[in-house]
Amino acid sequence: MLINTEWSTSKPIEYGKNIRITSSLGDLTASIFNATGVEISKYLSPLAKEIEFHFPEIAHINLQMLRFKTQTGERHVRFEQF
After folding, report:
1. Which of 31, 33, 73, 82 could lock 41 by a disulfide, CB 3.0 to 4.6 Å apart?
2. If you average pLDDT over residues 34-46, what whole number do you get?
């Protein structure tokens, strides 16, 4: 998925799964949220290649959605649920 400095289109994620996000360039923010405004965000530094959200830290968010944005430029991002 190609992302930029605006929030990406939200992607639904399966409740009960861990989420792994990878990017070759880093310098992006990933956010898991729902329609009621509950949100957890993590920053992937320019030197890092991946971040994870583990289910226990996001379990309180129902109807989870995932979105991304970069701090600068465009990035290719991949996420997986496991």
Report:
1. 31
2. 94
**Adjacent-strand bridge partners of 21:** 51, 79
User: How far is Cα 18 from Cα 81, in angstroms, rounded to an integer?
Assistant: 6
Nearest Cα residue to 42 out of 21, 23, 18: 21
Position 31 pLDDT exceeds 90: yes
Under a CB-based contact definition with an 8 Å cutoff, are residues 39 and 33 in contact?
Answer: yes
Structure tokens at 57: 């830290």
12-36: average pLDDT: 94
Non-local (6+) Cβ contacts of 8 within 8 A are: 1, 67, 68, 69, 77
- Please say whether the beta carbons of 72 and 17 come within 8 A: no
